[in-house]
Amino acid sequence: MWFFTPSISGVEARRFGKQLLREYKIEGVELYPKQDKLITGTGSLVRLPLGIHQVSKYRYGFIDFDGHPLAPTVREQMKILTSPKRVPQTFIDQILAVAPEAKPIFPTKPYIPRPKNRIVGDTLSERIKNRISVYDFISQYIEINERGFGYCPYHDDQKMSFGVNQEHNFWNCFACETGGSVIDFWMKWRALHGQDPDFRKTMIDLIGLLNM
User: Fold this and answer.
1) In sequence order, what are the residues at sequence separation of 6 or more whose Cβ sits closer than 8 angstroms to the Cβ of residue 209?
2) Is the pLDDT higher at 37 or at 20?
3) Is the domain of 73 the same as that of 19?
């Protein structure tokens, strides 16, 4: 379900969406934007419509309340969406007035980067892994609950299959049957966003992101 609103911040959009889910007791719904604001990279601010699902090969379009296409073709749907009916600002303000304030980006203690000469590891990959915890890195891109679970960004996840093990510092998805370190996550993230997932290019990217 899409809500077309006046121009509001990511923080307000998330508080608005979360409060609606809370008031109507709706669970198991993936909410976008997934972040209050961008920290690094493109983040997960919106799930674009009209794409083709990788598994079902079905094109995601807009439908009415009876389940029928909003218009027979993609072009006609886009024409309708150029002037959508927007949620009134007064209603948004009403919902935000009772919505809890946004939590800090990191529920745990903020990560304090170590000086370059104190990042331990015999190899570059080890130093990257020691630069930031898997939890602190990944939580910038997907929302993870207090138990360390979230919706996997690498498949159409409806069951919070993605988990982060803070004690042993790794992530895994029970549905995808994949996981690993910060490096593994970023290789798949690059591939998901149309970038080259090559190991060397991923390492160079991480060096810049982590200011190493």
Assistant:
1) 40, 41
2) 20
3) yes
Q: Residue 136 has which token pair?
A: 């602190």
DSSP H or E segment with residue 78: helix 74-81
For the chain, give percent helix, strand, coil, nearest 5: 35, 10, 60
One domain, residues 143 and 90: no
- SS3 state at 100: coil
Domain with 139 in it: what CATH number?
Answer: 3.90.580.10
Residue 197: phi, psi to the nearest 5?
A: -85, 15
Q: Which domain holds residue 17?
A: 10-98
Q: Which two tokens stand for residue 75?
A: 């072009």
* Structural domain ending residue among the three candidates 48, 72, 98: 98
| Top-confidence residue, 48 or 127 | 127
Model confidence, pTM: 0.52
